[in-house]
Design a protein that fits this description.
The chain has about 575 residues and is of the alpha/beta class. Helices cover about 35% and strands about 20% of the residues. The strands form 6 sheets. The chain has an 8-stranded mixed beta sheet with strand order 2-1-11-10-12-13-14-15. A 5-stranded parallel beta sheet has the order 4-3-5-6-7, sandwiched between helices. The longest helix is centred in the last third of the chain and has 20 residues.
Length: about 575
């Protein structure tokens, strides 16, 4: 493909089109994107596909401002289509693949998406709205043989684009509209923990500014490998896990499967990533399932860990093995989307593992604070410093604790909520700062400490504020528990917990159902007493209740708190 389509190299790109054009110019022959264990596309071939798909979309009637749905798991085809959509000044509408059918209907209908790209796993979700769709393309080449829906496999769609626009591709003379920095690039529905989703409008400039800021906290070089395991329909993975490595000439590898420890180990052994993003749940599972048992099953290691120097030696040794688990050349692992358990972060810090904590929200494209990696002044359990180009202030801070609402300003902050001026107005202060709804403080070294959602804080009768996330971290550190939710019930603090039944099966092997039940009850009571010894007298847990199924969570594995109240407490308790 000829170079005339590419613009003059710019130092500060303000649209996604400029970003990918510039990366193609710099890194044309380098590998760009692909599935794990498969041959990747080069930057040049990736760019060619983007332009051809954009030309075909334009030919079938997609134009500036139109909204196109993307509903599927991560793949090079997903990102190709996204960048083809925004090439036209149209708006990509990424839909999280775990959303239920009713939510998918609502999003695609409200956004008036008559062109949708999806995968086999998602196709049944659109059967009931098929009459509203003019074009359905399967990103994984699935052919629907039910005769319920007419679909086009992506490879056929791409082949049509090559055939129809081959001459244009050779000359690089595509006639695409001009796209401005403030044009919307994407509309994303948040899956918040405190209420119903809103449609967040992010501009080209928002996403480019955030990706550029991320380069200051994560250092990447051309040909490094960035492994993608989180849903790219979420801004965390899209901006930091895709746009950032693309801008640096890296190769982005899509796992293609649920990132269980076994799947990760196999992929990492082959791909040997330099960088990747995870949510705390992933690293916490590895810590509980692989690291803790290594120490607890060895009397010698357990003894060493009682002493500071011995613990450091043991953790360093395990840290090296953990790096080996991820392929042996990991330079940075970004952890975000939810709060990391302090005990696990303390292990990672002592072990010398190359991790970085990040904090943000969809409305800020999403990164607000994090790192920079290697800064020794970053406090344990903080989210690091505000990233370059982003300003943070603490509003209405408590005089004693310094805790107040975290508010944000910068080029990364959203255009607003789609078709909802009232909600947009409520989310911004009179002087233009984004109200995050999170409570936190900034310490003397500039580190941001997030204490929790303002809507989840429990205010006791004596005026004391209880931050449930702090207690949940203490509960979740026990191998018996997978996750927990702390709330107030008639003036008392209670916890729901979802136990690790695999762990319980192993410990109670051969025992009767009654013996197993007795074991769970007694262990939960011991945990309650142990946790209470670490809490103030007013915030102690009055009881712990066993929940027999996981909590419903957001895409970044935060529990949707608004779904749970004291009135719906489970019956089994201690």
């Amino acid at each position: 493909m000829a170079d005339p389509q590419l613009p003059v190299l710019q130092k500060n790109v303000t649209t996604l089109n400029q970003l990918i054009d510039e990366s193609c110019r710099k890194y044309g022959d380098l590998p760009a994107v692909g599935m794990a264990l498969e041959e990747p596309l080069t930057y040049r071939s990736f760019h060619e596909r983007i332009l051809l798909i954009a030309a075909l979309l334009q030919d079938i009637g997609v134009s500036r401002g139109d909204r196109v749905g993307l509903l599927g798991e991560n793949s090079q085809n997903w990102v190709t289509v996204y960048l083809a959509i925004v090439r036209l000044g149209a708006v990509a509408v990424p839909v999280l693949p775990d959303l239920p059918e009713a939510d998918v209907h609502h999003i695609l209908t409200e956004m008036a998406c008559d062109v949708v790209f999806l995968t086999q796993r998602q196709i049944e979700k659109i059967y009931d709205i098929q009459k509203e769709l003019t074009t359905v393309v399967t990103l994984d080449d699935y052919i629907d043989d039910t005769d319920v829906l007419q679909v086009q496999p992506f490879s056929d769609f791409l082949a049509t684009a090559f055939t129809r626009f081959e001459d244009v591709a050779d000359t690089g003379s595509f006639a695409f509209p001009e796209v401005a920095a403030q044009d919307p690039a994407s509309i994303l529905y948040t899956s918040g923990t405190s209420g119903f989703s809103k449609a967040v409008m992010l501009s080209h400039a928002n996403l480019c500014a955030n990706a550029a800021s991320a380069t200051a906290i994560i250092s990447l070089e051309p040909e490094m490998v960035f492994l993608s395991v989180l849903p790219i329909a979420h801004t965390y993975e899209f901006t930091v896990g895709f746009l950032l490595p693309m801008s640096r000439g890296c190769r982005v590898v899509y796992a293609g499967k649920t990132p269980t420890p076994a799947v990760l180990q196999k992929i990492c052994a082959r791909e040997r990533p330099h960088g990747m993003l995870v949510v705390p749940l992933i690293i916490e599972k590895i810590y509980k399932k692989r690291i803790l048992p290594t120490i607890e099953k060895s009397a010698f290691l357990s003894l060493l860990c009682r002493y500071s120097m011995g613990r450091k030696l043991v953790y360093r040794r395990i840290g090296k093995k953990l790096e080996g688990f991820f392929g042996g050349r990991l330079m940075v692992m970004g952890i975000g989307g939810a709060a990391l358990n302090p005990e696990i972060e303390a292990f990672l810090r002592t072990a010398g593992f190359p991790y970085l904590i990040g904090y943000g929200m969809t409305e800020s494209s999403p990164l607000v604070a994090g790192g920079p990696y290697g800064d020794t002044s970053i406090a344990l359990c903080s989210t690091g410093k505000p990233i370059p180009g982003v300003r943070i202030r603490i509003a209405d801070a408590d005089e004693q604790s310094g805790i107040g609402e975290i508010q944000v300003q910068g080029d990364n902050v959203m255009l607003g909520y789609w078709n909802d001026p009232e909600a947009t107005s409520e989310t911004f202060t009179d002087d233009g700062w984004l109200k995050t709804g999170d409570l936190g403080l900034i310490d003397e070294r500039g580190n941001v400490h997030v204490k929790g959602r303002s809507k989840s804080v429990i205010v006791l009768a004596n005026g004391e504020n209880i931050y449930p996330e702090t207690i949940e971290h203490k509960l979740n550190s026990y191998p018996l528990l997978v996750e927990s939710l702390v709330l107030e019930n008639r003036g008392k603090i209670e916890a729901w917990v979802y136990p690790d039944y695999d762990f319980i099966d192993e410990v109670t092997a051969g025992q009767s159902r009654e013996q197993r039940h007795t074991y769970i009850i007694s262990e939960l009571e011991e945990i309650r007493k142990s946790v209470n010894r670490q809490l103030s007298s007013t915030s102690k847990l009055s009881r712990i209740l066993e929940r027999r199924e996981p909590f419903i969570k957001t895409a970044t594995h935060k529990i949707k708190r608004y779904l749970y109240t004291a009135d719906t407490m489970p019956d089994s308790s201690v």
